[in-house]
Design brief:
The chain has one domain. The protein has five helices and five strands, in the order αββββαβααα. 25% of the residues are buried. The protein has helices at residues 11-16, 98-104, 116-127, 142-160, 163-171, and strands spanning 20-26, 43-52, 58-71, 78-91, 107-109. With 173 residues, it is of the alpha+beta class. Zinc ion binds next to loops.
Length: 173
């Protein structure tokens, strides 16, 4: 497996050659993503194309797809989460073109990114939900159902111990 993604490469040089990078990256290599997922054996499929724009800026476009394991925050059981993100990164070669690039591209970097893997990781992190959860309670594990029942009991109790119920009975005296 070639490792262009993980190397500190001359992206401008790759872009000048119109390089295509098709690699599969293990989540274990992505130090910011790895602690967030339950399965570090997950892989990210990257399909990137590098090119130069008419002003000589480096462009990195393409798609990253993966399915990672996250912990559902409702039932604390693992859930699979599919990420399909597109990359539209411009790396500015001069300050004068920054504003123009920002109008044209999703992500603009003022200087050469250290590795393509970092760009890929950024994109996957952005695509993850703030709070991971199964689509519905029915998809959740037993803990969610128990918590749901417990919440129901508490609210029943609240009705019976309602202090206003006491006031009501005093008033009727
Ligand atoms: Zn769940």
């Amino acid at each position: 497996m070639s490792r262009v993604l993980l190397q500190k490469t001359d992206l401008h040089g790759l872009a000048a050659r119109g390089a295509i990078v098709e690699e599969v990256l293990e989540a274990a290599y992505l130090s910011r993503l790895a602690p967030l997922v339950t399965d570090t054996a997950a892989t990210v499929a990257c399909n990137l194309a590098l090119s130069l724009d008419s002003r000589g800026n480096t462009l990195v476009g393409g798609t990253v797809t993966t399915t990672v394991g996250l912990t559902c925050q409702r039932c604390l059981e693992p859930m699979a989460y599919r990420v399909e993100a597109s990359l539209d990164v411009a790396i500015a070669t001069g300050d004068e073109s920054l504003a123009m690039l920002e109008a044209e591209h999703e992500t603009v970097l003022p200087a050469e990114a250290p590795r393509l893997a970092d760009l890929v990781e950024d994109e996957v992190l952005l695509a993850l939900p703030l709070v991971a959860m199964h689509a519905s309670v029915d998809d959740c594990g037993p803990l969610a159902q128990r918590l749901d029942d417990a919440a129901q009991d508490t609210s029943d109790e609240r009705t019976t111990n309602n202090p206003f119920a006491v006031l009501k009975s005093l008033r009727s005296d």
